[in-house]
Amino acid sequence: MSVDQQQAPTQLTENELRSLDAHWRAANYLSVGQIYLMANPLVTEPLRPEHVKPRLLGHWGTSPGLNLVYTHLNRVIKTRDLDALCVWGPGHGGPAVLANSWLEGSYSQTYPDVTRDAAGMARLFKQFSFPGGVPSHVAPETPGSIHEGGELGYSLSHAYGAALDNPGLLVACVIGDGEAETGPLAASWHSNKFLDPVHDGAVLPILHLNGYKIANPTVLSRLPESELDELLRGYGHDLIHVTGDDPAAVHGAMARAMDTAVDRIAAIQRAAREDGVTDRPRWPVIVLRTPKGWTGPAEVDGLPVEGTWRAHQVPLAAVRDNPEHLRQLEQWLRSYRPEELFDEQGAPRPDVLACIPHGARRLGATPYANGGLLLRELPLSPLEKYAVEVDKPGATLHEPTRVLGDMLQDVMAATADRRDFRLVGPDETASNRLQAVYAASGKAWQAETLPVDEHLDRHGRVMEILSEHTCQGWLEGYLLTGRHGLFSCYEAFVHIVDSMVNQHIKWLRTTRRLPWRAPIASLNYLLTSHVWRQDHNGFSHQDPGFVDHILNKSPEAVRVYLPPDANTLLSVADHILRSRDYVNVVVAGKQPCFDWLSMGEAKVHCARGAGIWEWAGTEDGSREPDVVLACAGDVPTQEVLAAAQLLRRHLPELAVRVVNVVDIARLLPAEEHPHGMTDFEYDGLFTPDKPVLFAYHGYPWLIHRLAYRRTGHRNLHVRGYKEIGTTTTPFDMVVSNDLDRYRLVMDVIDRVPGLAVRAAAVRQAMEDVRQRHHVWIREHGMDLPEVADWTWDG
Q: Known EC number(s) (predicted)?
């Protein structure tokens, strides 16, 4: 039965109740076993210290509640034949999800050596949080997962991202009450205002309140129920409560809650898809209250454990050394009556398996949790369609991101029927000059609209919310379930998701080592409104450090590009949208920028990643250059070319080489990054012994860090952003940070042997212009005419 069909809640029969409870008890037993045991998995003999792991690492407290949810999701998926996915938010729920994956057979299918018998159970137990084994969190290694549980706050936005453009998919999302206290999770409740009941699937949030975090009560669990209800209703949800600690009663209530929720979802989707209802629906949410560490030890060493924060991790911590703890552990394991749950060979008995769906309907086997299996190539047109004409360098200007917007408009149009591309950003699509996409798709919006509103669209695939966390979570969930996208953001504020991108990079690095995980589309950032043209917003909007953050991460998974003009941005965009399993960061301007390269030249230059612009320098091939002017980024490129022009005019005998870097990882050694250069290549480009003046978009020390091993590093001098900013003119920003053309000419004179005396007058003239600039802008409020009206005349 598909999700758009309705079925009334049913009363569980005794057989159904017995089967559900058997499955739940089996999952609880397996969860405890993973935390504690390395031998004697079925407790067929009295428990001895050597059966217990020497280091007990894991978390019991949330596991019984997650096992309950998994058991009842199994039931509703099987009885209604649903396509479903679950995002497991509680960070420490690894034992539960692994246990259920093993019970349903998806774990053994993925890892054939972990068989569904006693030997496989022993492997399942020993490998958990054990050297050479698997993590204690729900992780990439876990079948059915799209969510790394190591950091809290992102489960609900991931769930909504998975549901977007998957109209037949039910995405359950278990939200722990600790996670519910985080800012990202709080913002992501608003995702229901963007979920289209016609074209998107459904998200069923399950707020699991077990009362405690590691050492403190949780806020939502201590609110009066009426206040919590008001909060969730205010978020736009209808509530379904399940509360208790008696297993039989909770099973019955949970089954009714699941049936009620799925029925309400089906009614909402039917009303939108068949009856044309356009009112924003009130989606169901289940509020599940069960004790923390439910069914575990009630008391340890005279202190209460079950239902308290003491159940969070390992309730019995000294099992190898404390005979009483060992006795309690054996009593705890036997309380689940494993002989009723597993046969003599250790295989789950039929009652345990009765609720489990078949094949790809199993939560651990759904292809939606291995999105690369569903991924299709994006339909991208030839770049020549969008290219700007460049008859000669620097003769025309374009806004690079506006040109890119035309390309993205076509991507949106070409995916209109298949709906597998989304553009996300925090209220900045038009600000970042990408508004051409609105001709192909408006902005997703399910809330109230007013006549003055523009481009709001109930079925839109442009997503804007003023929460970078939510944007990132949506896009990650979208990509992990087999689709494509782009995140456009102001450069300074993408730092808000520093921690989120850490987790995604770790996910990608891990999945590259899992042959069963198919590659997914890359997570692509377009960072614009960047540091050098935030002169109107000022210091608060000036921070180019996201690139530094990214380049600290796994080289196999990260790429950073700084295209200097419109055509190079097009070439880079085409490349990143075709790529797989990377985090790509593109920094590009939205302000008018000189066009330096034709489309053909841009393709070659971007493929090379770094290269000599012969037309910009004064090398004649008869001798080595006297100095290398290098640049990375659009504003630094313009300043370097202006400096090269000044040097040609004032010091025509000087042999100047101009090098532009698009792919910043090219500066790394080849053994450190797949895009890195060998020493031979690097020395050929930058020379081993000549002064190199490098104008860089961001913090200058990054370039030193990337190139510190190179032969010529002692000759490398980098200019970049020095954390000096304010509301000022565009050129004053570069002057304030010593990145301007006049400062670069002075640097050349200071560093090329013999010029300090011979070119002293030229240096003085450069300093005079800088001083004149300082006075001019304070009088006129605009840049010097020779700067504002500058053109390339090479």
A: 4.1.2.-
Number of domains in the chain: 3
| 174 part of a folded domain | yes
Residues 566 and 628 in one domain: no
Is 695 found in the same domain as 578?
Answer: no
**Per-residue three-class SS string for 227-270:** HHHHHHHHCCEEEEEEECCCHHHHHHHHHHHHHHHHHHHHHHHH
Can you read off the two tokens belonging to residue 26?
Answer: 């089996």
Residue 548: count of CB within 10 angstroms of its CB: 14
Instruction: State mean pLDDT over 527-546.
Output: 81
CATH of the domain at 33: 3.40.50.970
The token pair that represents 506 in the structure block: 């770790």
Please list the residues that pair with 128 across neighbouring strands: 134
Q: Which of 531, 497, 492, 551 has the alpha carbon at shortest distance from 702?
A: 551
DSSP codes of every residue in 258-318: HHHHHHHHHHHHHHHHTS---SPP-EEEEEEE--TTTTS-SEETTEE-TTSGGGSS-SS--
Rounded to whole angstroms, how far apart are CA atoms 87 and 155? 6
Q: What are the phi and psi torsion angles at 494 (to 5°)?
A: -65, -15
Query: 685-731 pLDDT, tens per residue?
Result: 999 999 999 999 999 999 999 999 999 999 999 999 999 888 888 99
Last residue of a domain, one of 320, 349, 368: 368
Distant-in-sequence, close-in-space partners of 349: CB < 8 Å, separation ≥ 6: 22, 340, 341, 342, 343
pLDDT band at residue 467 under the 50/70/90 scheme: very high
In-domain check, residue 383: no
- Please tell me whether residues 245 and 337 are part of one structural domain: yes
Q: How far apart are CA 646 and CA 743, in angstroms?
A: 11
Same domain assignment for residues 543 and 615: no
The structure tokens listed for 493 are 């504020």
3-state secondary structure at position 444? strand
Cβ(427)–Cβ(388) under 8 Å? no
Summarised one tens digit per residue, pLDDT across range 284-319 is 999 999 999 999 999 999 999 999 999 999 999 999
